[in-house]
Amino acid sequence: GENVEQHPSTLSVQEGDSAVIKCTYSDSASNYFPWYKQELGKGPQLIIDIRSNVGEKKDQRIAVTLNKTAKHFSLHITETQPEDSAVYFCAASEGDAGKSTFGDGTTLTVKP
Amino acid sequence: GAVVSQHPSWVICKSGTSVKIECRSLDFQATTMFWYRQFPKQSLMLMATSNEGSKATYEQGVEKDKFLINHASLTLSTLTVTSAHPEDSSFYICSARWGGGDSPLHFGNGTRLTVT
Q1: What percent of chain A stands above pLDDT 90?
Q2: CB neighbours of B108 closer than 8 A, spacing ≥ 6?
Q3: Is B29 helix (H, G, I), strand (E, B) or coil?
Q4: B60-102 residue pLDDT tens
Q5: Distance of alpha carbon A45 from alpha carbon A38, whole angstroms
Q6: Across the interface, do A41 and B34 touch by the CB < 8 Å criterion?
Q7: Is B49–A99 a contact, with Cβ atoms under 8 angstroms apart?
Q8: Closest Cα of chain A to B9: distance in Å?
Q9: Size of interface A-B (CB pairs under 8 A)
Q10: pLDDT of residue A96
């Protein structure tokens, strides 16, 4: 089955700096890679996703890059703000009826 | 759009009783719903996959007789924790999607279950 590894497990940055979280996956059949943000006591919320036919996608301060050959994808947050502090999960899944496999999460702390 | 409502947000029950958690997709029809358990500072552990009108598919190690899942309609799935014990105390989260594996998941806000 699919295996997703996520690094780092914790990340602390100063407000205004950039943050990068990286994930690798094992199943070359995976073709959908979403990122979720989970705030304390709440369910995860989708913040950005990318499909295997695209190498990069950007939405304001958030961007995701995908390298299919190396089987890794990354989340980039620029101009970080204290409200970006949360746990971020990457995931990988296959089309059709595929389940999503989640990384172990990254706790991002943005210091004001 | 794509709102998933999960109730209750928290529940306290006595050991040996059963608890039902509801997961509703409010503005879309969910072809598939998923139930997870999340321990503090850990990732989401998939418990089961639920498709409308069919039996749920449970992950290895999850007791199907203890965690009863019903997906009666395209907008509602329920998880019943039967004969709950303190070790069942956890954060339970549902998610729903309307497409295949390349569709985003929409999560409920979770249910904090405490069994005394």
Answers
A1: 87
A2: A43, B4, B5, B6, B23, B93, B94, B95
A3: coil
A4: 999 999 999 998 888 999 999 999 999 999 999 999 998 887 8
A5: 6
A6: no
A7: yes
A8: 9
A9: 65
A10: 64
